[in-house]
Amino acid sequence: MDVSALKQGRFVIGEMGRGVDLNRNWSVDWGKKEKDYNPFEEDPGTAPFSEPEAQIMQELSKSFKPHIWVNVHSGMEALFMPYDHKNTTPDGAPSHLMRSVLENVNHRNFQDSCLVGSGGGAVGYLAHGTTTDYLYDIAKVPMPFTFEIYGDEKASTDDCFKMFNPVDKITFDRVINKWCMAFLILFEEGLRTLPDDQVVSQGALDNWVPMGGEILERNMDQKSGGENGKLEGLDLGMQELKTYFRLFMLSTFLLMFMFCSRISKNRSRDSGNI
């Protein structure tokens, strides 16, 4: 987050303190600029992976072989797949599988209300050097997606926080619950759709370390618990996802509150000096 830009009143930004948009700092089609390129919002950096945050995420993608990778954004409600740098989806069966998964998630959880398709084709503009395109083309992740989880179309363009974040508890809880369930459905659909040779063995899933560090051990008795065991697993998964989203949204809110408070104080000080 660029604090200096916030002090200047530029609230609608996607850049870091060095002015770089991390979702333009990846190597696939890096550095290309569209006619409507805005250097204040889409600076790709001095080179692919010039930013430490992008380097960390790249190393993470190399450290294991993820089956599904989801980038979480806000601004609208949509389920996107590659590509971002062109208005088409990849060719072949893998692309059809990805679209099928997203369409099933959209139908089961959103009653077909979300926009589904390639990021570049559905959003209305092309983005170059994005995470999703790198993960698909270079890291060979079978199913990299971008989820746009919220957007207030009625919010003023001067109120960036309200445009991209729920501001009341009822809406906040609704967004959390709805998208946590979307992730659970995504995992189910992805596991069902992926070829057998790409699915991790059950042995690797016998121990799961949830948030907080407590190890969930699944012994044979738990595995034979039938439907009750499945429900407990879903409940635990929902609880973990809710915890993650709540922490994410809370940290975002606190940061924005702190920055906006500083802006307000600076403006008051400037007004007093006139």
UniProtKB/TrEMBL annotation:
Give the source's domain of life in one word: Eukaryota
UniProt-annotated catalytic positions: E148 (proton donor/acceptor)
Keywords associated with the record: Membrane, Transmembrane, Transmembrane helix
Report the transmembrane regions from the record.
244-261
GO molecular function term, any single one: zinc ion binding
Q: Which cofactor does it need?
A: Zn(2+)
Q: Which PROSITE patterns match?
A: PEPTIDASE_M14 (PS52035)
The record's section on SUPFAM superfamilies has: Zn-dependent exopeptidases
Under the heading Pfam families, the entry gives: Peptidase_M14 (PF00246)
On whether RNA-binding is a keyword of this UniProt record, the answer is: no
Q: Which biological process annotations from GO are given for this protein? A: proteolysis
InterPro entries for this protein: Peptidase_M14 (IPR000834)
Q: Which GO terms describe its cellular component?
A: extracellular space
State the family named in the UniProt similarity comment for this chain. Belongs to the peptidase M14 family.
Please identify the protein, giving its name as recorded.
Peptidase M14 domain-containing protein
Q: Which organism is it from?
A: Aegilops tauschii subsp. strangulata
What taxonomic classification does the UniProt entry list for its organism?
A: Eukaryota, Viridiplantae, Streptophyta, Embryophyta, Tracheophyta
